[in-house]
Amino acid sequence: MNYAPDGPTFVPAIWSRPYTDFDRKAFYKDERFRETTFLVQALRRSACYRRGTVQCATCHDPHPVDAGTYPVPLNFRDNPDELCLQCHSALRSKLTAHTHHAEASEGSRCVSCHMPRIVNALMFKARSHQIDDIPRTDLTERFGQDDSPNACLLCHQEKNPACVQAKLQSW
Predict the structure, then answer these.
(1) What is the mean pLDDT of residues 13-33?
(2) Strand positions, DSSP E, the chain
(3) Where are the alpha helices (DSSP H) in the chain?
(4) What whole-number distance in Å separates Cα of residue 48 and Cα of residue 28?
(5) What is the distance between the alpha carbons of residues 5 and 161, in angstroms, rounded to a whole number?
(6) Predicted confidence band at 111 (pLDDT cuts at 50, 70, 90)?
(7) Residues 50, 44: contact at Cβ < 8 Å?
(8) pLDDT exceeds 90 at position 155
(9) Mean pLDDT value across residues 82-93
(10) Could you give the 3-state DSSP secondary structure of residue 114?
(11) Are the C-beta atoms of 151 and 116 separated by less than 8 Å?
(12) How many C-beta atoms surround the C-beta of residue 26 within 10 A?
């Protein structure tokens, strides 16, 4: 994948047009993208892309041998946390201390917090590709879960933003 700052790039210039050119319905009130149309732009907002080496092929296999039977061609599909741990290796031995969830649980997957399923796809909620996304209870409190979805509240629906904030502060 060519993300070089000079010469032809993978991301066409038309994709870099100002976001104000798009309908506000494409965004959450907290300025995150709501539609799959903007997955590349969301990735480009991420620190992992801007300051790191992440590109589409870091996580996705563009030519999987089982493309017809596996709809999301991920590298490390049997160990999806490896996508993140290859760069964030310091967390490898202390994942449960970082996530405060059981190691084998969905709450302990990197993508559950940092790439929550909040993006509208045709028939499902896709993962946000703004990888450095973290649960922002202040924005959820201000705009509500529908307009500023909080990753914690996607699973812990019986809780509210204040409860989540108290829990996060105790970590």
Answers:
(1) 72
(2) 117-120, 125-127
(3) 39-45, 47-50, 56-59, 82-85, 95-99, 110-114, 137-143, 151-155, 161-170
(4) 22
(5) 40
(6) very high
(7) yes
(8) yes
(9) 92
(10) helix
(11) yes
(12) 13
Residues in CB range of 28: below 8 A, 6 or more apart: 34, 118, 143, 147, 148, 149
Top pLDDT among 108 and 15 is at 108
Q: Which amino acid is at 79?
A: N
Domain ranges (residues) in the chain:
13-133, 135-171
What is the b/e burial string over 118-146, where b = at least 16 CB atoms within 10 angstroms of the residue's CB?
Answer: bbeeeeeebbbbbbebebbbebbbeeeee
The letter for the amino acid at 62 is: P
The residue written with tokens 């870099």 in the block is 16
Token reading at 5? 């700052």
* Token reading at 107: 């709450």
Confidence at 19, pLDDT banded by 50, 70, 90? low
Task: Write down the pLDDT at residue 13.
Answer: 54
Burial of 154 (0-12, 13-18, 19+ CB in 10 A): middle
What is the C-alpha separation between 119 and 147, in angstroms, rounded? 12
Structure tokens at 83: 């996508």
Q: Which residue has the tokens 């590109």?
A: 55
